[in-house]
Design brief:
It is a single chain. The protein is of the alpha+beta class. About 35% of the residues lie in helices and about 15% in strands. The strands form three sheets. Strands 5-6-7-8 form a four-stranded antiparallel beta sheet, with helices on one face. Helix 1 runs antiparallel to helix 2.
Length: about 200
């Protein structure tokens, strides 16, 4: 059986949550013997955080049974705010990496982080679109990559080539002088020396 994210690689495990076949490159192991895909591992981590908050609330309630208190104390407000934040994180993971309100990406200083964010969006696109890759990066917006209309132009920072053999290649269009360029494809990541005019 082939990996859901890498159709040319053999799957070695099934995700314990969603059941998709995954190769060694896609496996996340948050605890020994528990194998998840990236998205389910993130959800599992968020879920564990939520459970630990609920456990702490229960223990605190047992200790203070004899003490009368206001039913809407600071801890209850903290729990509500935490629950909302966890729900927002789930939405970000499931619906494609939407930025938190008011957050602005510094594209100039976080170019490489943005590159990996775009690559993750391409993989989500392939996962949900039947292992097909987008024709161009703007096809990712808005479903798989949340960018404002003003920020879509920032996708010009990257070279994207849909390749029938490798699937796709994604790299920086203009790496900085003296830096190695990152080239990402479904086969992995490789580095190349900067060549004038791009990759």
């Amino acid at each position: 059986m082939k990996c859901k994210n890498h159709p040319k690689k053999e799957a070695v495990q099934f995700c314990a949550s969603c059941g998709i076949p995954i190769c060694e490159e896609c496996i996340e192991e948050p605890a020994p013997g528990q194998y998840y895909c990236f998205q389910c591992a993130m959800l599992q981590t968020v879920s564990v955080v939520g459970s630990s908050i609920a456990d702490k609330r229960t223990k605190a309630g047992e200790k203070k049974l004899t003490k009368k208190r206001d039913p809407w104390g600071p801890f209850q407000y903290f729990l509500i705010v935490s629950s909302v934040l966890i729900a927002v994180m789930w939405g970000v993971i499931i619906f494609g990496g939407q930025k938190a309100p008011g957050q602005k990406i510094d594209f100039a200083n976080q170019e490489r982080a943005f590159l990996f964010m775009v690559d993750s969006s391409i993989k989500r696109y392939a996962h949900y679109e039947g292992n097909k890759y987008p024709e161009k990066l703007t096809d990712l917006v808005p479903r798989y990559l949340r960018l404002s209309d003003d920020d879509i132009i920032q996708l010009n920072r990257f070279n994207y080539i849909k390749d029938p053999q490798t699937g796709y290649q994604l790299s920086l269009a203009n790496p900085k002088q003296g830096e190695m360029n990152i080239i990402i494809s479904p086969k992995g990541i490789r580095y190349e020396a900067r060549i004038e005019g791009g990759v």
